[in-house]
Amino acid sequence: MASTATFLAKTPIRTTPFPKTLKSDPSPGSRLSFSLVAGARRPARAIRSCRIACALIEPDGGQLVDLVVPAGPAREGRRREAAALPKVRLSRVDLEWVHVLSEGWASPLRGFMRESEFLQALHFNSLRLPDGSVVNMSIPIVLAIDDTQKKAIGNQRKVALVDANNKLVAILSDIEIYKHNKEERIARTWGTTAKGLPYVKEAIQNAGNWLIGGDLEVIEPIKYNDGLDQYRLSPVELREEFLRRNADAVFAFQLRNPVHNGHALLMTDTRRRLLEMGYRNPILLLHPLGGFTKADDVPLSWRMKQHEKVLEEGVLDPETTVVAIFPSPMHYAGPTEVQWHAKSRINAGANFYIVGRDPAGMKHPKEDRDLYDADHGKKVLSMAPGLEKLNILPFKVAAYDVKKQKMDFFDPSRPQDFLFISGTKMRDLAQNRKDPPDGFMCPGGWKVLVEYYETLLETVTNGSVTHFPGVQKQGSSKQR
């Protein structure tokens, strides 16, 4: 199923041999540096203290932006200023985008997009900087308001952004308000306006008819207080961790599903190949998406429990793996969105990005087919504007080898010996308390997945499961 971002393809696909996928000089001798640019009015001494020299890839624009107002008088001054400003209430997804922007994942973007930035992202999948250079930006990062909010703002040049509890989150300055053409935005981002696109339903369908852009000043770091904040490392913190581990290469792997042994095979094989290329200490960034996901995806908290078991049981080496949460919401926009996923990992310090079958894809919401061509994601990444310095690593196809009783790379000379287990099949096995073939997933990780579906079944009220699409009661074939 396309909604599982794995390399367990329905049918084998050919991929370009590993070394030939590299678009830039991948030699270990390459040395770059980056600096962090603070939010508006940060003291010069604080900027200098954040300057870091490293052997990691340079962030987009040459600098990481930091839009969080420093603690102390500056922060308190912004709070006083915000009290007199018109207020815009943020949705859950809006707050996730504030998080993304505040930490520099979208560097060099410094706030919600104004119209010129929005149009460039929508039509060119990139932004042209003042020096003429181009950085990738395939997903519009925008904030919608309605007619009433627009009228309340009037001629003001600043607004205060507040959360659902009216707590101050940020100030948006030097604002620009422009028309929100939803149909054009949806059509160009997803390639369809079919009803049922998860992100559209969550964040666009009922949003306002205007977009407001401007420079963002975030009052304090975004925290969720859900027991997972320790995993939410910013690009600066990730770069510092890679330096602490003496990484001379970083390869990133994004996923929104539990890790099985096929994933692990791919990641360990990638490290082996990087070592063969001359790197001394390649570090894996295992980077699950932590923002909005559709209802039938396994929730973040359970995925993180499962990932912990993968490291505890030695499927992946904790010494060469960094597990962190990527705060972005998920669009399920296929080749358009995978560019955003790759671009943001450049800012986190990754110079290699692993891409597989139908990245960021999903089933068509109305028809029985995948929404995107399974191969287009990796093809688009290989020629996307602004991603030239990132080395793209296509998945090698892996499946369950019934003779060896383990996950292995597909051998086209004996296709009858391989079993392709889709994400849908994996979920069906777990929610029906059936074990997968030995060697498919580490035992502790599989136990976590089964426990998750058991918690859903425990919510049965009067014989029906509420709020959990796709979950079935034992012995019933009816979807509830």
UniProtKB/TrEMBL annotation:
Its EC number is 2.7.7.4. The keyword Nucleotidyltransferase applies. Its main location: plastid. It catalyses: sulfate + ATP + H(+) = adenosine 5'-phosphosulfate + diphosphate. GO terms for biological process: sulfate assimilation. Residues 57-220 form the ATP-sulfurylase PUA-like domain. One of its GO terms (cellular component) is chloroplast. Keywords: ATP-binding, Chloroplast, Nucleotide-binding, Nucleotidyltransferase, Plastid, Transferase, Transit peptide. It is found in: Plastid, Chloroplast. GO terms for molecular function: adenylylsulfate kinase activity; ATP binding; sulfate adenylyltransferase (ATP) activity. InterPro entries: ATP-Sase_PUA-like_dom, PUA-like_sf, Rossmann-like_a/b/a_fold, Sulfurylase_cat_dom, Sulphate_adenylyltransferase. Pathway: Sulfur metabolism; hydrogen sulfide biosynthesis; sulfite from sulfate: step 1/3. Residues 229-452 form the Sulphate adenylyltransferase catalytic domain. Belongs to the sulfate adenylyltransferase family. This is sulfate adenylyltransferase. The lineage of its organism: Eukaryota, Viridiplantae, Streptophyta, Embryophyta, Tracheophyta. The gene is LOC105053406.
